[in-house]
Amino acid sequence: MDTDSKSAQGLPIVVEFSGGLELLFSNQRKHKLSLPSRDGKGHATNMAYLVRYLCDNLMSDARQDMFVVDDTVRPGVLVLINDADWELEGEHQYELKKNDNVLFVSTLHGG
Amino acid sequence: MAELQGLPEEYRDMSLEELHREIRRMEQLIRLLKDKVELSEPRTSGPDTQDVDLHSTQKTETQTLPCRTNTARKEPGCTRSLKVQEYKRYGRQMIMPEVGLSGQLALKKARVLIVGLGGLGSPAAAYLAAAGIGTIGLVDGDKVELSNLHRQIIHTADNEGMEKVDSARKFLHSLNKEIKLVAHPYHLSSKNAVETLEEYDVVLDCTDRPATRYLVSDAAVIAKIPLVHGSALQTEGQLMVLNNPPIATASKKKGPCYRCIWPKPPPPQSILTCGEGGILGPVVGVIGVLMAMETMKILLPALRTNADESTRKGTPFLLYSAYLNPSFKSVTMRGARENCLACTTMANGRTLKNYGYDTFCGLSCPVNILPPDERMEPKAYRSISPTSGPAPILVDVRENTQYNICHIENSINIPWSTIREDPADAFQSMNKHIQHNGSSQVPCEICFICRFGNDSQLAVRRFREQQQKDSGLKFTCKGDIRGGLKAWREQVDPEFPDY
Ligand SMILES: [Zn+2]
Ligand SMILES: [Zn+2]
Question: B386: part of which helix (H) or strand (E)?
Fold first, then answer.
């Protein structure tokens, strides 16, 4: 199909934060985003792109290490793509689709 | 050794204790398989049973669930029956097809360990004791404190200062005298965890920090028992059943452990405890209650078959958030990890050795970045004589909610989170605030204070950095109050609330 018109349309997705991570993103749990459907190199937009995008554009807190360590989501954060562990979906390589829901949850330890 | 011919390799070196455990496990498995066969038979025994009067649900039920509550049981484990008063006590749950007499006997035979008798462990223990779990082990090394009582519902104000294990035993004993309670009045460590867990069939992790959560999970893997994991903070809770089944069966792979899901611990600075972040009682309570339910599902043969069906896709992970709509969300986690340290090395070695859990998780050290001469003792601040000019203005950097609960008179509130995010703006507003309050004499002196004396040091450092950039900040910063409001209470004002 026509890839040019596809990238022009953009890629609407929903990103949610929970377990305290929302505090790093303007204390807002749900964000509706429109990403380009291709990255700068012409590859389909994937999870690696999204994580970088969130750090560069959506994070309101300066403490990047509360979300990202070594270029990936820090230990103790679960990433769920449409309610399934991203490890079941290909992690960084997962190519985002229209209306995907991506949930970042910090594990809790209190009791 | 001729009589041992045919004994699989892995059993040859097992200790007596381990052999007993294996026997128990296999007996349980056999019981399950018999139940399964029994349940399957009517559905597969020909068209007759399918066709009989589908409109009469009562009839269909009796056919698909044959004799589960009475005659069908002949294996030795089920020849015991209950005391007269137990039929009455457990009647309302026993008449449930999910329980029945065989289920009640399974609960009575079960041994469940609850690690941590706090906000999760309290409701879990109460429901499990009430349901008639035959043996409940209670692990905690702490004492009951007044600040526990809004959520730790089995402890009472009369028991303040008592070992939590004893306070829990008192409550549970008054609730149900038919069950056995075993006290383990200590904190679990890599030295005692495995031997403690090995005496039980299921363990509930009701602890409150990452190091103990890895410890309980690793020990559960070695002891080969399922782990019910719950956690909560502020308005949110999480629930998961791990290491279930603990050993692969013909139809099901071994379940993931805590380490399979989270191989690396979170960085210490990202951890918030209930003491720092706060917790609502019903939030942690609902997770504790659900932990009791998951435990019963593991122990009740009839329910387990249903549970197995729903977990075939992956491991369910339940998220609860009091202020979200809907409040519950279930997501699917990965299965066991092939190279998991616990499921391979530790399980094979059958020991935690002296694994350093605190080192693994890292310790968040108390902040100590200011030189001693920039730190003022509370009593030194209090004794500043009025003749030597006004005392420095106290800048309280706790969050606004905490400041509104209680604060020192005439102190002002500039939360550390606002300083961290935008120091220029935060200190500008501090400037205005102080001038507005009538401290016209500029430059005046300021001194930072917080709850424990950590954030106040960070605030001092950030203020000095900002002062270099902004000549408008004409304050003389005298440093911070060492030990914060906690030390203030100890040295100056014993009436200052300890929240
Ligand atoms: Zn039976
Ligand atoms: Zn594992």
Answer: none
A99 touches chain B (CB under 8 A): no
**What's residue B40's pLDDT?**
64
Do B462 and B429 touch, CB atoms closer than 8 A? no
Q: Which domains are seen in chain B, by residue range?
A: 62-360 (3.40.50.720), 372-491 (3.40.250.10)
How big is chain A by its Cα radius of gyration, in Å?
Answer: 14
Q: Which residues of B are catalytic?
A: 274, 450
Distance CA B69, CA B96 (A): 10
Contacts of B231 by beta carbon, 8 Å cutoff, 6+ apart = A107, A108, A109, A110, A111, B120, B213, B237, B238, B287
Q: Phi and psi at residue A3, in whole multiples of 5°?
A: -70, -30
Residue B122 sits at the vertex; the CA angle it makes with B120 and B123, to the nearest 5 degrees, is: 80
Q: Which amino acid, B433?
A: H
> What SS3 class is residue B158?
helix
Strands (E), B33-119: 111-115
ipTM of the complex: 0.89
Torsion angle of C-alpha atoms B219, B224, B225, B229, degrees rounded to 10: 50
Q: Does B268 touch chain A (CB under 8 A)?
A: no
Q: What gap in Å lies between CA B476 and CA B393, rounded to an integer?
A: 10
Is the pLDDT assigned to residue B455 strictly greater than 60?
Answer: yes
How far apart are the CA of B260 and the centre of ligand 2, in A? 4
B260 is in an annotated binding site: yes
- Which residues from B are below 8 Å from A16, CB to CB? none
A32 or B47: which leads in pLDDT = A32
Distances (CA, A) of B493 to B389, B396, B487, B489: 22, 16, 9, 5
Where exactly are the structural domains of chain A?
A: 3-106
CA B68 to chain centre: 35
Give the contacts of B238 (CB within 8 A, at least 6 positions apart). Answer: A19, A105, A107, A108, B229, B230, B231, B232, B287, B317, B318, B319, B320
pLDDT band at B27 (very low <50, low <70, confident <90, very high): confident
Fold held by A3-106:
Ubiquitin-like (UB roll) (3.10.20)
Q: Please report the DSSP string for B108-149 in residue order.
A: HH-EEEEE--STTHHHHHHHHHHHT-SEEEEE---B--GGGT
Q: What is the pLDDT of residues B96-117, one digit of tens each?
A: 999 999 999 999 999 999 999 9
Q: Is B406 annotated as ligand-binding?
A: no
DSSP classification of residue B279: B
If you average pLDDT over every residue of chain B, what do you get?
87
Among A63, A83, A107, the residue with its CB nearest the CB of B332 is A83
Q: What is the pLDDT of residue B477?
A: 94
User: Strand pairing of A11-18 and A101-106?
Assistant: parallel
Alpha carbon separation from B407 to A73, B379, B458 (Å, rounded): 38, 16, 20
